[in-house]
């Protein structure tokens, strides 16, 4: 069994994808679908949480999508959570099991979760940010004994926008994970927290020195969450983000994801605050 | 290996000979300017051209390049790696330095096989610049007024003949079987030495500081109000990046034929100066202002690429200044930022 990336590197062009088959499609919300994809049988994805693949539909285009399944539960079958926001993602939402897409990657650096071992972990997904974080959360939960306290603070716009609801319920049911969820715009059925994600920090008690925080969400969220985390005393090197950029090639050439001297698709999309705090335009 | 001598009267024969085996391109006059284009008649070749509208980069990174063709909605995909042996005649030394940077970018990390194939099949015949080509060039300041080792053949105009320096086996191949070249004599060497020595005073240093200080000057300028001044003038047309010999950013798009099942994926030159360049799917634009995009361009050339590759991304060709409708020039920009950094530094030290 070889990895998809090794296979991609053997193509006569780095831009030629490998064809993967859709085995399942599930609606998560009105905007997001969960796609289960299967690589040709002899390839494994072999990714790290936080990495992404380039997904393409011939005739429509290609876009970077983070991998939402965890390495612990992924082999040649993997999952992508895709929001319908543009031409390509709209077209992907039309696809049915049995149809095919092109895949290149996985690209980028994922989260260095080996370095998180022994630490308390604070996961802060906002909106679609849960998709890449779910990969890391499940990786950690499948190896639960290696980590300290685990807290998940998840914020979404409304109850209808919550992703992976069954899985959230499973995490909430566990005694060894603290899960708190908030929504900005509640409906009549909502009995939980109301407000933006930073409101969840009010009652949060953590051992700042031994806590690693991993934050993934829309660009506007990062500054506010960062202020909370620094306010709690978490070290700059222990605050991790995943950056959204338009990685058109995934291989450090096209320039669209460039953040100063860094190609986000190569040196990211996972960065610690210590890595990027001096870079204008980062947040 | 020593230099060869080729009389100018032999040039046409040599070019015609090359045309039998290669696509031969070189600078030619068009509408009062010069462009790199295929040579169909050696008389069109103008090796003493001042500068060209576009650099010869288009032969390594075509403005529009098919990456692959697909059939049956992608169940069959074939990479488009085109081999077209090409000789580029008359490459100026600034453009040679640019190719050196392009080589580094496309050979390192994930190699770009499209570029590599073009490059492996490209024969670079560079030519020594003996006088400034135009008002905007500042190669002497950027250290690009001598040829880097990437040349296959390098010519120097000695008046009635060219000296030919052979830089590689590919270069030797271009001269193979051509009998109108001779080994340079002692007199030729003396003449060459004199021609080279005499050229330097004709060029002036255009930057008010040494190029090694450029990354630091730009670093100090990150928050400078000068970027807003440039942003107010900039039209975001992207001409500066189109004509730049070291710009290689691209966009990717698909086209399909009428069956909707067969088509191609294409990359086209893109520009960090256009508004959508750093836009992401959710609608956030990381460089929504022209000031930020101008800052990105100049810092990329003078700082980021130096940090990433150890090479400054600007080679001083001056084409962006010539192409700019609102007279944004690297010489003026770099010098102005230097002046302002000199002014602010003592204040910072005091604080």
Q: Specify the overall morphology of chain B.
A: globular
Give the end-to-end Cα distance of chain B, rounded to a whole number of Å: 59 Å
* Unreliable runs of chain A: none
Number of domains of chain A: 2
What is the tally of beta strands of chain B? 12
* Biggest sheet, spatial arrangement of strands of chain A: 12-11-10-9-13-14-17
What would you give as the CATH superfamily of the largest domain in chain A? Nucleotide-binding domain of ferredoxin-NADP reductase (FNR) module
Average pLDDT for all residues of chain A? 94
Give the low-confidence spans of chain B: 347-351
Strand segment tally of chain A:
17
CATH class category label of the largest domain in chain A:
Alpha Beta
Q: What is the SS-derived class of chain B?
A: alpha+beta
Termini Cα gap of chain A: 39 Å
Assembly classification: heterodimer
The biggest beta sheet of chain B is recorded as: 8 strands, mixed
The amount of beta strand of chain A, in percent, is 25-35%
